[in-house]
Design a protein that fits this description.
single chain, Clc chloride channel, 54% helix, 3 domains, mainly alpha, 7 strands, 440 residues
């Protein structure tokens, strides 16, 4: 269990069943992950001789509710966390709170608040992410229309909202109204004509270049981690890797601002992937409000898994799809309680986004599909054929890939594989038994 990236006492040693942290040995031999209230307390023996005499050799619980010892509980940048150590710390903290809950009313309230802190944190993550997603959608729509003109009466309105109540619009020119002025109309006084077209085109390009330049400059100067979508790095962090500052407050601010600028510039990119990064930044920042999630890296990754589901929920308006995305694609550690909390956070985020109504159609996405009439039988035939052809072609494809697995094992194992040639015994490989690798 020795982790080179974990800042601990250099004199401490560890075995397979114990963890020793600055003179305190914690027994973590239990492998179950059930509630600690149904088991005996894990004995922690102080290795200091003076403390052992003071305690008469009686086992006691390590007080992890207080501040951690100097040099313990932190990881260096670009290192992996110790999953067993973090799980043991959280289990001992839970036992400590449970053992004290009957001492006073304050201790009982503290244990209740600790039990509901996870749901409260999910509520805050959903509200914050939904509000930020709504602000990003509204700002991006306004800045996109700003490249073409401005609303003179209320400059904070985009073109659609500016002409919403105008009685002078027609079906052909529904986005044109006296309140909305193009840049050519403001500069040259005319709306149509070759010169007006050139002026509008040049100003459109200038606004797009300005938005792109501001986005790149802010990222390079203040938050280099705010670039790209962030999903590959989030998958790495959820697998136990430490990247300091990638989900920090400054990254959240710059990511939110530059996402609006990048989308408004007209570049060939979207906000769906970055919204996952924004939601994970919200989850990581809000973790500092609760001690249970601030001091434990494993518990924090439970929140980040739920935040990834929230990001997909506000990006596509699909709470269930967000939970499945977090479960199947990005999460390395996903217990059952995280599944329900992720779904709750995704629902809260979707409800918040719909309450803001950034698109004006009471929907969660820009292109909302409404089903006013049922499908006709003839319209279902292409979908039926699509399913049939998918099954016909998918079966041989997966069968071929399965047959290529032994060849891939032979290629990767090479001369290190034993058992009658490269890759081991062929019958063992067909039976799903991995080859035994021995030194050459």
């Amino acid at each position: 269990m020795n982790n080179p990236g974990y800042c601990s006492d250099p004199d401490s040693t560890s075995t397979n069943d114990t963890v020793e942290i600055t003179g305190v040995t914690l027994d973590c031999s239990g492998t179950d992950d059930s509630s600690p209230t149904h088991h005996d307390s894990v004995p922690v023996h102080n290795t200091s001789e003076g403390d052992m005499k003071a305690a008469n050799g009686a086992p006691h619980l390590m007080n992890v509710l207080d501040d951690p010892a100097p040099g313990v509980g932190t990881y260096e940048d670009f290192n992996t966390i110790d999953w067993v150590r973090e799980k043991c710390k959280n289990r001992d903290r839970h036992r400590e709170i449970t053992s004290r809950r009957k001492e006073s009313i304050w201790a009982w309230i503290r244990s209740i608040s600790d039990a509901f802190s996870g749901w409260l944190l999910m509520l805050l993550v959903g509200l914050t992410s939904g509000a930020l997603a709504g602000g990003i959608d509204i700002s991006a729509h306004w800045m996109t229309d700003l490249k073409e003109g401005v609303c003179l009466d209320k400059f904070w309105f985009n073109q659609e909202h500016c002409c919403w109540t105008s009685n002078e619009t027609t079906f052909q020119d529904r986005d044109l109204c006296p309140q909305w002025r193009t840049w050519a109309e403001l500069i040259t006084g005319t709306r149509t004509g070759p010169f007006a077209y050139i002026v509008n085109y040049l100003l459109y390009v200038c606004w797009a270049l300005l938005f792109s330049f501001l986005a790149v400059s802010l990222v390079r100067a203040f938050a280099p981690y705010a670039c790209a979508s962030g999903i590959p790095e989030i998958k790495t962090i959820l697998s136990g890797f430490i990247i300091r500052g990638y989900l920090g407050k400054w990254t959240l601010v710059i990511k939110t601002i530059t996402l609006v600028l990048a989308v408004s510039s007209g570049l060939s990119l979207g906000k769906e992937g970055p919204l996952v990064h924004v939601a994970c930044c919200c989850g990581n920042v809000l973790c500092h409000l609760f001690t249970k999630y601030r001091v434990n890296e494993v518990k924090r990754r439970e929140v980040l898994s739920a935040a990834a589901a929230v990001g997909v929920s506000v990006a596509f308006g699909a709470p269930i799809g967000g939970v499945l995305f977090s479960l199947e694609e990005v999460s390395y550690y996903f217990p059952l309680k995280t599944l329900w909390r992720s779904f709750f956070a995704a629902l809260v985020a979707a409800f918040t986004l719909r309450s803001i109504n950034p698109f004006g159609n009471s929907g969660l996405v820009l292109f909302y599909v409404e089903f006013h009439s049922p499908w006709h039988l003839l319209e279902l035939v292409p979908f039926l054929l699509l399913g049939i052809f998918g099954g016909i072609w998918g079966g041989p494809l997966h069968s071929r890939q399965y047959r290529l697995v032994p060849a891939a094992q032979d290629h990767t194992a090479g001369p290190l594989s034993g058992g009658g040639g490269a890759g081991g015994n062929r019958s063992d490989r067909r039976a799903g038994i991995p080859p035994i690798c021995t030194p050459a």
